Known about the structure:
- This protein is an alpha/beta fold.
- It folds into two domains: 6-101 and 108-260, Type I PLP-dependent aspartate aminotransferase-like (Major domain) (Aspartate Aminotransferase, domain 2), CATH 3.40.640; 266-384, Alpha-Beta Complex (Aspartate Aminotransferase, domain 1).
- The protein has helices at 6-27, 34-47, 58-68, 86-93, 112-124, 158-167, 221-231, 253-284, 313-322, 352-360, 372-384; strands spanning 51-55, 75-80, 97-101, 142-146, 171-175, 183-184, 187-188, 196-200, 214-218, 299-300, 306-309, 361-364.
- The strands form three sheets. It has a seven-stranded mixed β-sheet, sandwiched between helices. The protein has a three-stranded antiparallel β-sheet with strand order 7-6-10, with no helix packed on it. Strands 11-12 form a two-stranded antiparallel sheet.
- Helix 5 (112-124) runs parallel beside helix 6.
- The two termini are 24 Å apart.
Amino acid sequence: MQFVDLNAQFERIEQEVRNRIDAVLKHGKYIMGPEVNQLEKELASFCGASHALSCASGTDALLLPLMAWGIGPGDAVFVPNFTFFATAEVVSLLGATPIFVDVDPVTFCMDPDKLQDAIAAVETGNASLHPLPQLSTSHRLVPRAVIPVDLFGIAAHYEKIIPVAKSAGLYVLQDAAQSFGCEWDGRRACAMGCDAAATSFFPAKPLGCYGDGGAVFTEDPELAEVMKSLRVHGKGAHKYDNIRIGMNGRLDTIQAAILLAKLEVFEDELERRQQVADLYQSRLAACSNLTLPSVPIGRKSAWAQYSLLSSNRESVLEALKERGIPTAIYYPTPLPFLTAYKSYNYHPDDFPVASRLSEEIFSVPFHPYLSEDSVAFIADTLTSIEI
């Protein structure tokens, strides 16, 4: 049994993928070929955004808007403490300071109330309001942006986060690396009212290519133009007219071609993901020893993962392993406690929710092509474990 079965998907779309790759091989425009422009138009249309800009990875998709906004040293950017490293990493790469915010215990997304406390703490320099990094500099940080993460496919609490951020004059960058295709009150990820949104096309994502890839979305035409320039070494009127310091962040044409093939079945795959999730939910409903995923009213998840909580996780994982069921832990260490941020001197008590989640969370196999029999086998195994 595979944790994510990409081969099952490939069997379904193989001919279309090969046809589109062959088309690229024939025209030979491997960098910024016509498929890139077509993909950007289709991505924007799919989610309802005005501008979509493809790029080389989900990390680049986070980096581009921050660069365009001039985020840098002395700036504070608020990020959830329970997610993948890239969300905080891009902040640090620009010399800014990530301010970690604990997450909601139900959705595992950024807690809006704690975000408000964190903003107040940074504005006043008062760490009694919210845990702050113990930095060597005496200069007070300036709040500039917030990056909510749609963890495991569920949209963050934008109905509260956006007003909190805007009242403090902060940019909002939606990290939709795990949620492309999800919905919040009828609006799709990457078009939920944020200043910009980023997603990833890493192969295991809901919409993934066969390598690295990403995209950034915005309603702001000026921001879109600046990011287009930044994506290609700060390009101006032509490739040797460099008007700003940029990066090499282009999406390969072949990856764009692959994504175009995958977009054709993406709506159907989202429905299949929901069906698989529903099967898990119904079969595990009576399992009192596990906490199941919860999707708030008004939201539809893209179901990037199916993650559960157990106070006796190691015993559960061992029992699943004995039956040949693969598992994963997202995430074993909250971001503030990674080695990269050791100098911030945080304590587990500073972030109680993330600290507990990291000890109890685990994910089981999940993808659109997971059979009902496989779900039944996994669920029956979970319910049979004596804890």
